[in-house]
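[agent] plan:
  1. take the single chain provided in the ticket
  2. run structure prediction with default settings
  3. attach structure tokens to the ticket
  4. add a short note for the reviewer (M.T.)
[agent] executing step 1
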Amino acid sequence: MFAIKAVSYTDPEAPAQFARSLHETGFAVLKDHPITPDRIDRAYAQWGEFFAEETKFGFKVQPPSPEGYFPFRSENAKGSKAKDLKEFFQVYPKTPLPGSVEPVTRALYDDLFGLGVTLLEWIETNTPADVRATFAEPLPDMLRGSDNSMFRILHYPAQAGEPPEPGATRAAAHEDINLITLLLAGSAPGLQAQDRTGEWHEVPCDSGMIAVNIGDMLQLASGGYYPSTTHRVINPEGGAGGARFSMPMFIHPRSEVPLSPEKTAGAYLMERLKEIGLA
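[agent] step 2 finished; step 3 output follows
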């Protein structure tokens, strides 16, 4: 049975329940977490204004830099020919930001990074000893000195009728690259995860929740103990619907951290970015 556990951050049993859900499904959901609803609501409102303005193009990404604004249909999932129906802005610790969104965005970045460290501590503590012994270093230590974690603000524009090309969706089926992803509840439903039989399930992420999922880096480092579960964001039912916003934080280790005897985190990241058209 594919059952993503919703865990209260304040429950003394939360760390063990959280790690168990990640092992069994690749996903877990946090409620009662310490990030205030007001901060999240202000971020969605202010970034909504940013995406509605033409000034956003002044922040367009300048390759090979990975930071800044990515216009509509910039990215495709690995193995997918159709570009995703989204635009987004990628934030790193030193990314220049529009003044209107800078205070709340910096605060959210720090909040989510700090929470990510705590969640990696939970995972580390509740991982079987034989699996933990294969990690190059304790999971929280992999973040020390790393500026690679990335906060992404996503805007899926309103839709009306058929997509612009066959197979195009808001976010095609994919796996994340990093260690873990923390996803603040989206402004509308649509996130689904796939079980081992190929069936799709809605990810519970009501307002005030954070969905957390395993990325390919932790799957590789754990020898598959923690699965990087395939997930997607589907188009609105009937081919028409309003805009959707979401804000994931991708927690990345330092580039030199070995994930396996053959691959460092930095080498693996570049390999994957090329596959999805971002490098």
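[agent] step 4 note for reviewer: The longest strand covers residues 244-251.
[agent] ticket updated
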